[in-house]
Amino acid sequence: MKFNNMKLTPEQIERLYQFTRQHYVEWYDLQTELVDHLANAIEQQWPDNPNLDFEEVLQLEFKKFGVFGFMDVVEKRQSALNKRYNKIVWKHFKNFFSIPKVVITISLIGSLSFLFFYFQYSSILLSILFFATLVLFWIGLVKRTKAYKKEVKETGKKWLFKEIISGYSAMTGLSYLPVQIMLQFDDVTVRFSIVKSVFFASLIVTMCLLEYIILFEIPSKAQKYLEETYPEYKFVA
User: Fold this and answer.
1) CA distance readout (Å), 3 to 25, 138, 179, 214
2) Which residues contact 218 (CB under 8 A, 6 or more apart)?
3) What is the pLDDT at residue 169?
4) CB-CB neighbours of 78 under 10 Å
5) Segment 107-130, tens digit of pLDDT
6) Least confident segment among 40-49, 131-140, 157-166, 170-179
7) For the residues 77-92, what does the mean pLDDT come to?
8) Higher pLDDT, 157 or 3
9) Before 178, cis peptide (omega within 30)?
C-alpha cells in the first residue's frame, strides 16, 4: 500500500501496523486500510498541532473511533465481505440451473426422488445420505482450514476475505439444518410420498452442490476473487 504525499517515515508506518495489531485487528487488509486512514489523519493533524509528537497525534486519532476502538470497522468489513462471499456462492449455485448443468442437476434430483419413493425405509436412506454429506463437508472444511493456517504461518499475513473463502463463512451453519429435519422422524419404516421424495432429493442435491461450490469451485478461483477485492493482493500475498 502506497501513501501519497506522506511525511511519515517507514518506521512510523510500521508502528501504525503494530498499533492496529495491538488493538486486535489481525487481518492484513484491514490493518492496511486503517494504517492508510490513520497516516493521512496524522498528516492533517500535524499542521494544527505542531507541538504534538507522533504518538500523541496517533492517540488523538484513535479516540475518534470511540470506546470500542476498531471493533466497529472490523464488524462492518466482515459483514460486507460475508455478503460478497454469499453473492459469489449464489452466482455459482445458479450456474447449476442453467444449460447444460441443469440437465445433471435435474437428473440427480430425479434419481434420488425415485429411490426415496420406492424404497421402504426412505428415512433410513435419507439419514445415511445426510450423514455422509455432512461428514464429507466437515472433513473438507478441516482440510481447507489447515491449509489456510499453514499459509498464514508461511506468509505471516491474514486476509479476511481469504479466511472467509477458506471455510470461515456463516454458510457453514446450513449444515445443521438436516440434523433438525431428521429429528422429526419417528417411524423409520415410513415410505415417502412423491412430494416428500422430491423435496428431500432437492435438499440433498442442494447440499451437495453447495458443498462442492464452497470446498472446490470457489477456492479454485480464490486468486481471482482476492485480486478483485484487494488490487494489491498480487504484489504482497
Assistant:
1) 20, 42, 51, 36
2) 88, 89, 92, 165, 225
3) 56
4) 18
5) 999 999 998 888 877 778 888 888
6) 170-179
7) 91
8) 157
9) no
CB 129 within 8 A of CB 197: no
What is residue 88's predicted lDDT score, i.e. its pLDDT? 93
Residue type, 98: S
CA 62, distance to chain mean position in Å, is: 28
CA angle 109, 112, 115 (to 5 degrees): 150
List the Cα angle 75/57/36 in 5-degree steps: 45
